[in-house]
Amino acid sequence: MNAAARVPRTLVAGLALLAAIALAVIVIPMVSPYDPVAEDVSSMLRPPSAAHPFGTDQLGRDLLTRVAAAGRVDLALMVGVEAAPFVIGTLAGLVAGYRGGWADRAITLLSDALIAFPFYLLVAVVAFVTGTGVKGIFLTFLIMGWIIFARTVKGATASLAGEEWVESARVMGFSDASILLRQMLPNVLSQAVTVLASDMVALLVAIVTLGYLGLGIAPPTPDWGTMIADGQSFLATRWWVSTLPGCAVVLVGVALALIGDGLNDGRRA
Amino acid sequence: MTTPRRAALATWLGGVIVHALLVVALVAVGVFLIVRLVPGDPAQMVLGLKARPEQIADMHHRLGLDQPLWRQFASFLGTLVTTGDTGESIAYHVSSRALVMQRMPVSLWLIGCSAALVVAISLPLAMTAALHKGGWIDQLVRVVPTVTLGMPEFWVGLVLILVFAVTLKVFPVGGTQPGIDGMLYSMALPSLVIALAQTPFIVRSLRTRILDVLGADFVTTLRAAGLPERAIRRHVLRNSLLPALQLYGMKVSFLMGGTLVVEQVFGLKGVGTLLFSAITARDFPLIQAVAMYCALGVVAVSVAVEIAGGLIDHRVRGRAAASRGGAR
């Protein structure tokens, strides 16, 4: 079998879709004649047309430009926020899975206690403590985001730790740190990365939901969540204001879900 | 039941309960810390910048902030354990626990209706998908989650309102109506939103498990014994439910989070909307009460699921002990 055939089609489709979205989000605000933030009361709530393919919002702003500008903000945040929990969770899972005992017990207890707080409740409380905006989102995901990676990696590491080659590496005098980072990590990383793709969808949805609830990115910075909230009051007559930013979220979700499925299939094959 | 087996069961049950109690204790510490982690002075935050010093001092006294930290925690814990309360609400001037209890029914209705919907949608879908593997329902079950995973619940809620309430006028836009039938009518769209978010996970898990069980020896034996297909399906389903049940238990914290968002979209007077008004009003004791009761609910459900799982299938007990115990 050649290399091209081994790459799952879903992975290719997902990556292509994500690249297309990223390109659109970067290019559209640069070429658009409209400003995503400046208000234009002379053209409020126009339906989609040639001049405004997505229509305009309640302040007369071109919705296509705004959806793209918001995409820059939300997608950059999604990637930036996920990095720290991924690293922390993977390392915690490695140690807990390899050491077992009290390290495992402490991490299980802590994550069970954190998970007991309904997610949006914690988000709301953190936003309340730190104030709304990027800082609150970052902190919340630092608190909650590592758990899923820690659990995945812990399971995978624990099942590897019993194998003979690990035992022999230990007998040969390799240090624990070296065994963990050089031998175990490469073996469990693919599982963590698979989880990463689907977790990013959840993160994006959470960022957007926070914006909708007024606890996330604050106006005038464009954000898909606040845009959907803006359109809610004239949902019945001006459907595009809420619906189209929502479609953008769904599209990113599809791309990431395809990547996740593809990685999963690739790992099993 | 032999005595050693009963002793093992008791040890396992004890372990589950001790773990749950430790989690609850950690949760209580977390809830206590909510007020203390606020940067600056919480009393100032409640009263605003124009507050007079004696008002600030009074609020410090009401929130217990004039005490040393360990005494604050002791009195917080004492009140919580004896009365189940976190203090008087600043905005409503009544017990925070009473406010949470007053809002609880709507949220429980929402959770109950969505759970019923999840079961009603997932069981037939997963069964059909597994029995006709590769058929169009199976394909559907595989593809749909790819799309729905990225749908924010509030947005799904808005789209459902647009279609079913505004355009077709079959369901109300929001709020609740009196009576059991009125309640069911008002819960239709909100619980559908939550169910749509949950079903893909449950169906996926159930389908995989049903496929495993269908290939098991006992099914072949039952078939060979000439049992009717309907009866076989019942056996298969009963043996497949456990992992889905456990997954659902794990998703419950998400479910409770889901009600916060969905209540907001549909204007339901549940615990979720109470939390948002508490946050807007900077009502610390009320925020603590909501957090505490939601977390207790999550812990209670996960314990119930773990015990149910252990009683149905004792292999779970060994596995749970291994994962908690830390056998390398």
Automatic annotation (TrEMBL), chain A:
InterPro entries: BP-dependent_transpt_permease (IPR050366), MetI-like (IPR000515), MetI-like_sf (IPR035906). CDD domains: TM_PBP2. Coiled coil: none annotated. It is found in: Cell membrane. Residues 71-260 form the ABC transmembrane type-1 domain. The chain crosses the membrane at residues 75-97, 109-130, 136-153, 192-219, 239-259. The keyword Transport applies. GO terms for cellular component: plasma membrane. The keyword Lyase does not apply. This is ABC transporter permease subunit. The lineage of its organism: Bacteria, Bacillati, Actinomycetota, Actinomycetes, Bifidobacteriales.
